Amino acid sequence: MLRGKLVVLRPIQRSDIKYFLKWFNDPEVTQYLSMYLPMTEMAEEKYIEDLANRASTNVSFVIEAIDGEKTVPIGTVGLHQINIKDHHGTFGISIGEKDYWSKGYGTETARLVIKYGFEELNLHRIGSGAISFNERSLRLHLKVGFKEEGRQREAMYRKGLYYDHVMFGILRTEWDKIQGR
Amino acid sequence: MLKGKLVTLRPVRRSDKQFFLKWCNDPEVIQFDTDYVPLTEMEQEKWWTEPSSSDGSNVHFMMEAVVQDGAKPVGFLGLHYIDHKDRHASAGIIIGEKDYWSRGYGAEAAGLLLRYGFEELNLHRIYAGIWSFNARSLGLCLKMGFREEGRRREAVFKNGVYCDEVMFGLLRSDWEKLNK
């Protein structure tokens, strides 16, 4: 459980499937993600059950927005493809509740997860990426300290066109500098 | 089967196991690859039963050098993470017989593989990631028409230090300009 001012990040539960089916079947949400087929209940159940087998290479959280006394699930975030030899992981975030876009929830969530990756998992580097038209995500990455490391040209096909995949990375040394260490 | 002047690319057979075990356990060879733990016979045999080897997301070829009395396996190559919707794949090549380094075998094999990817698999884009100290592969990518698209800084730990992964990409349209 990671706690911020706006959000709490907690482990995924089986009962979260209803949120995942809603979020990951919303084209406005999935246009930014690599998944593109209709997400079935069966496929989502399999994904959730399979998390147990990937616990050391994949850390996922549900993002809950703090609203007074209660909290509301609004999306997912995680570090994936964690490599135990090279000490790196890949950051991914998706806010499925669109009312919570552009209000600072993603920024606080990203900072909590990056801190967790470096200060708890002892990673050396965290990589990430975004499709080139996802302005919100590009800004978020730069704001929390990622550097743009390149562009994979025409790597993602959406709405009839090929778009670039923008690659980001942040090193532990850069994170420490941001923290004033 | 893809035929060139110096090399032939053919499907992998069970009996190729001996070559994989030799090449993938040679530190001089494997320093340029993602793999890093000793490759056991049991692990090698498992490769061919994994879903990824039959679900259309990988194409593997054995690379044989044309020699006087036949053909000699010298390495392997392939297209991986084939994405049939975005139409891209990652290219990888390993020449395990070190006598065959820097003599044009890799370039001819890579050319055959790229043609196969664009003209048979109908890919839009082929990419590759090369460790920054692998001068031979960096040169090969540029020679084949790949463009450097970025660097994943300090993404791989080899020989005691963190190195960059240099990212290359080649679009079908660029490849056609070079090959038509």
**For the terminal residues of chain A, how far apart are their CA atoms?**
25 Å
Low-confidence spans of chain B? none
Shape of chain A: globular
Shape of chain B: globular
Largest sheet of chain B: 8 strands, mixed
What is the correct CATH architecture of chain A?
3-Layer(aba) Sandwich
Biggest sheet statistics of chain A:
8 strands, mixed
- The CATH class of chain A, by name, is Alpha Beta
Count every beta strand of chain A, where a strand is a DSSP E run of 2 or more residues: 8
Number of helices of chain A: 6
Identify the CATH class of chain B.
Alpha Beta
- Strand % of chain A is 35-45%
Number of domains of chain A: 1
Task: List segments of chain A where confidence is low: pLDDT < 50 over at least 5 consecutive residues.
Answer: none
Q: Please list the strands of the largest sheet of chain A in the order they lie side by side.
A: 1-2-3-4-5-6-8-7
Q: What is the N-to-C order of secondary-structure elements of chain B (H for helix, E for strand)?
A: EEHHHEEEHEHEEH
Oligomeric nature of the chains: heterodimer
Radius of gyration of chain A: 16 Å
Short recap of the structure:
Chain A is an alpha+beta fold. Chain A has six helices and eight strands; from the N terminus they run E-E-H-H-H-E-E-E-H-E-H-E-E-H. Chain A has one domain (2-178): Aminopeptidase.
Q: Would you kindly provide a written description of the structure presented here, covering whatever features stand out?
A:
The complex is a heterodimer of chains A (181) and B (180). Chain A contains six helices and eight strands; from the N terminus they run ββαααβββαβαββα. Chain A is an alpha+beta fold. Chain A has one domain (2-178): Aminopeptidase, CATH 3.40.630.30. The longest helix of chain A has 15 residues, at 105-119. The mean pLDDT of chain A is 96. In chain B, strands 1-2-3-4-5-6-8-7 form an eight-stranded mixed beta sheet, sandwiched between helices. The mean pLDDT of chain B is 95. Classes of the chains: A alpha+beta (181), B alpha+beta (180). The A-B interface holds A 36, 85-88, 124-125, 127, 147, 149-157, 162, 167, 169, 171 and B 36, 85-88, 124-125, 127, 147, 149-157, 162, 167, 169, 171.
